[in-house]
């Protein structure tokens, strides 16, 4: 009798379990019973379990199937008879529970809290800036743990992690100039400008990366000069008596010292490094990354138009055209590392992060500033190739089934996925999508990066979406996620993005603040630190955080439009930058743009694509709760 009771008990238990599973997975989103089940298994399996994979295009709705590979295929074949539509609904229904928690948390942001966050961002900037000036100036960077200055590593010239950026030219002070104006401190801005004029020289035996010197130093000098001399843009009259265009002269001097990088290269693509005294080093390599060589046009172009010398724009534009001519005929994509003498691709990976990011950014921003139709057509062709070959996931961000959109690293010739990581620099891309008017895709990609931030309190340098874990663990206080957050808030005015900014601000205060500033996180999990505060923390990260919470900033109230360089420097959109004092010495060469690209991509009449989300597509949240919960799960938050 005892064994019969055991058998009966097991049968009853199995029937009960089957009933529970039917209730959980079969009824769909309309039945909740008021319970909140915390499920510990991987819900991606359920979506794939009920999906017929045979004949599915690799660029279809799902990229998460790569997380567990072959086991999904086997399971799918055993479950092919299950009703497809109801089971697709049941997959997303797992994320439909507790949707109100997202609405409660993100749907409002009081003005008092906004003012508090604005004050915190301001204090953060001055804590870093004041300590740099106290302990580090005139050196390039602040070591915030030891409260010391840092310059080039003269004992180890091969230490390019330091020497590419630090040129012994007071980097942090120069890079920070226009941030002082954004914060409304005209007095300190004028004092800092005078310090730069009196103390900075580029006649130094320093070998620096052309790209870094361009975006951090040249870009800031040009931006600050424009703001000093043009009372229309956007902070009013901030000039001072006796200023005689010294910042512009410094910018010109630096640009001349960078020009040797463009000499003796058979493709027109520049060498990656120059010595500011002697030119290209004799042992210089012939390889450079696409972003490094192709992201000079904004700063070089503005300089040319300010001084009436076409040389700088000419060499920068020639480099962009040379890179563009090397793109794949099959996919339209570019690689990430190229040989400047042979034009052969050394790195065949195409993505949106390191080595590629600002190349795309400057195609669009160059058009906005200079009005050259060629730049816009190249950008649109590149963007189309990105959407066709890098984008995975469902077609729409806020509608439909499948995984959220994600941009993966692919082979430039085949479009096949090359690895399963994305890097933190890619977090800039939602901001660029906003500028291009593709706010829908920007919302989803930003949400993915924000979910990673919520999990770690920082963005790891590389995140493996297959393993749901960091591949490279450090976080050097990068600004890209903050930048995209700010631009999405400007486009949508949704309070969700104020909450994102608050989370980032509070995480930095908690995890990165040290005795004399804010330190690089060596390890995003255990929060160990490195003694370095890069200049972009003050020039970009703090600037975008402050602007996010400062609705009344002159940049937001000005009648004139402006744009940010890739280093976050403020540049007015000015009609004088659309006028050249020279004839076009380098017209668009045959083969740079195909006939289809020339004819089918007319630039918009309105150069600002930053349109608001239409009313019919507005939600309490920018991304529906069900999709937010899905993304949070996919990065391991529950």
How does this model look, in words?
The protein has about 650 residues and is mostly helical. Among the domains are: about 110-285, Glycosyltransferase (Alpha/alpha barrel); about 285-420, no CATH class; about 420-535 and about 610-635, no CATH class. The strands form nine sheets. The protein has a three-stranded antiparallel beta sheet. Strands 12-13-14 form a three-stranded antiparallel beta sheet, with no helix packed on it. A two-stranded antiparallel ribbon has the order 1-2. The radius of gyration is 26 Å and the shape is globular. It starts with a helix and ends with a helix. Belongs to the glycosyl hydrolase 47 family. It is found in: Endoplasmic reticulum membrane. Keywords: Calcium, Endoplasmic reticulum, Glycoprotein, Glycosidase, Hydrolase, Membrane, Metal-binding, Signal-anchor, Transmembrane, Transmembrane helix, Unfolded protein response.
Quick tags:
single chain, Glycosyltransferase, 3-stranded antiparallel β-sheet, 24 helices, 8% strand, globular
Short description:
Helix content is 47%, strand content 8%. With 638 residues, it is mainly α. Strands 5-6-7 form a 3-stranded antiparallel sheet. Strands 12-13-14 form a 3-stranded antiparallel sheet, with no helix packed on it.
Write the layout of secondary structure elements.
Elements: H1 2-26, H2 44-49, H3 70-78, H4 84-93, H5 99-106, H6 111-136, E1 141-143, E2 148-150, H7 160-163, H8 171-182, H9 186-199, E3 207-209, H10 210-229, H11 246-258, E4 273-275, E5 287-289, H12 290-294, H13 297-307, H14 311-325, E6 337-339, E7 345-347, E8 349-350, H15 357-370, H16 373-389, E9 391-392, E10 406-407, E11 410-411, E12 421-423, H17 429-435, H18 439-456, E13 462-464, E14 469-472, H19 480-492, H20 496-511, E15 513-514, E16 517-518, E17 520-521, E18 529-530, H21 536-549, H22 554-557, E19 562-564, E20 570-572, H23 595-600, H24 625-634
Helix pairs in contact: 5-24, 6-20, 6-21, 8-9, 8-10, 8-21, 10-11, 10-13, 13-14, 13-15, 15-16, 17-18, 17-19, 18-19, 19-20, 19-21
């Amino acid at each position: 009798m005892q064994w019969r009771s055991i058998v009966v008990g097991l049968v009853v238990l199995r029937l009960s379990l089957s009933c529970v599973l039917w209730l959980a997975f079969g009824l769909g989103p309309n039945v909740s019973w008021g319970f909140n089940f915390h499920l510990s298994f991987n819900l991606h399996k359920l979506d794939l379990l009920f999906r017929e994979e045979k004949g599915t295009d690799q660029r279809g709705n799902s990229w998460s199937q790569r997380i567990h590979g072959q086991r999904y295929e086997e399971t799918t074949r055993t479950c092919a008879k299950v009703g497809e539509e109801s089971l697709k609904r049941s997959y997303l229904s797992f994320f439909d529970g507790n949707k109100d928690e997202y609405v409660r948390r993100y749907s409002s942001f009081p003005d008092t809290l906004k003012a508090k966050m604005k004050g915190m961002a301001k204090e953060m900037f001055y804590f870093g800036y004041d300590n740099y000036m106290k302990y580090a100036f005139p050196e390039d960077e602040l070591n915030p743990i030891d409260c010391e200055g840092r310059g080039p590593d003269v004992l180890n010239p091969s230490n390019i992690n330091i020497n590419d950026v630090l040129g012994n030219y007071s980097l942090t002070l120069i890079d920070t100039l226009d941030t002082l104006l954004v914060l409304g401190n005209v007095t300190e801005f004028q004092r800092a400008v005078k310090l730069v004029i009196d103390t900075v020289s580029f006649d130094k035996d320093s070998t620096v990366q052309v790209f870094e010197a361009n975006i951090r130093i040249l870009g800031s000098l040009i931006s600050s000069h424009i703001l000093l001399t043009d009372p229309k843009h956007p902070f009013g009259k901030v000039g001072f008596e006796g200023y005689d265009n010294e910042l512009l002269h410094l910018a010109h001097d630096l640009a001349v010292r960078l020009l040797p990088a463009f000499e003796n290269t058979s493709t027109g693509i520049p060498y990656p490094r120059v010595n500011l005294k002697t030119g290209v080093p004799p042992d210089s390599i012939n390889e450079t990354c696409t972003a490094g060589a192709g992201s000079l046009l904004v700063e070089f172009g503005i300089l040319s138009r300010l001084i009436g010398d076409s040389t700088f724009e000419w060499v920068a534009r020639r480099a962009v055209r040379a890179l563009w001519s090397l793109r794949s005929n099959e996919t339209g994509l570019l690689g990430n590392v190229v040989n400047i003498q042979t034009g052969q691709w050394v790195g065949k990976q195409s993505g949106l992060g390191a080595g590629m990011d600002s190349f795309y950014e400057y195609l669009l921003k160059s058009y906005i500033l200079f009005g050259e139709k060629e730049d816009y057509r190249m950008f649109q062709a590149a963007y189309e190739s990105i959407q066709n070959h890098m984008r995975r996931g469902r077609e729409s961000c806020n509608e439909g089934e499948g995984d959220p959109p994600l941009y993966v690293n692919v082979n430039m010739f085949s479009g096949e996925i090359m690895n399963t990581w994305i890097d933190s620099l890619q977090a800039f891309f939602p901001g660029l999508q906003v500028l291009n008017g593709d706010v829908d895709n920007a919302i989803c990609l930003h949400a993915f990066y924000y979910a990673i931030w919520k999990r770690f309190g920082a963005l790891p340098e590389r995140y493996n979406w297959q393993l749901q874990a960091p591949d490279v663990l450090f976080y050097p206080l990068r600004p890209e996620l903050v930048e995209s957050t700010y631009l999405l808030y400007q486009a949508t005015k949704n309070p969700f993005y104020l909450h994102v900014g608050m989370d980032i601000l509070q995480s930095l205060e908690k995890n990165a603040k040290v005795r004399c500033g804010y330190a690089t996180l060596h390890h995003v999990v255990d929060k160990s630190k490195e003694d370095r505060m890069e200049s972009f923390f003050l020039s970009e990260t703090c600037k975008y955080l402050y602007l996010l919470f400062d609705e009344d900033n002159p940049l937001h109230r000005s009648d004139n439009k402006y744009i940010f360089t890739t280093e976050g420097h403020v540049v007015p959109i000015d009609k004088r930058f659309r006028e050249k004092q020279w004839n076009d010495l380098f017209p668009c060469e045959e083969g740079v743009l195909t006939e289809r690209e020339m004819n089918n991509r007319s630039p918009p009449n309105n150069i600002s694509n930053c349109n608001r989300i239409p009313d019919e597509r507005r939600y309490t949240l920018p991304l529906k709760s069900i999709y937010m919960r899905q993304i949070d799960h996919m990065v391991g938050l529950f």
